[in-house]
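Contributing new records

If you add data, match the layout below exactly. Sequence lines come first and carry their own label; structure lines follow with theirs. Keep one chain per record. Anything else will be rejected by the validation script.
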Amino acid sequence: MRIDRRIVFAGLRNAVFGGRLSQGQVDGVEAVLTRFSARGWGDPRWLAYMLATAHHETGGTMQAVRETFAPDDEEAVNRLERAWRAGKLPTVSTPYWRRDSAGRSYYGRGLVQITHRENYAKMSRVTGLDLVAEPDLALRLDVSATILVVGMTEGLFSGARLSDYFSGTKADWTGARKIVNGTDRAKKIGVTARTFDAAIRAGLVV
């Protein structure tokens, strides 16, 4: 199985990206396509849901971002601290963005947000890079695409994995949000994922 990327991008341009694709959006989609195909393909719905997740987590940019969409580490830490002190992060019990003794902060980074030191350590094993020592490596597009694809395929975020929601005739577009983040924006992401799926299927070449 392979994919005609020209057909896929033509479909995505209007259906997902409002008629225009930036180079950054093209690069982001390409990075995920490349990582997914390198693993031997599989269910196209998996790819669609991963792309929809990245679309949501990055605010549609398809580029690895810092949590809160901050321009740098300092601003990300400050924004999270202010939000936490204002009671706007009720589900957070441990302020994971606070810097360690070496000045490193493990706030969310990537196409899908990884937070907490232990998760950076887990993804270090996935990528072969020391993300604990250099957490900003998670902002590299190739690294972030690997984290997204492997993490969602193998259930490294919450324990739930893509095969739990998409297998055979089973397709739970809403429930699949539990792979990453409970039920947050689950319906919205599910709708976007179906749109990605239609474009991908149009470009499939058996």
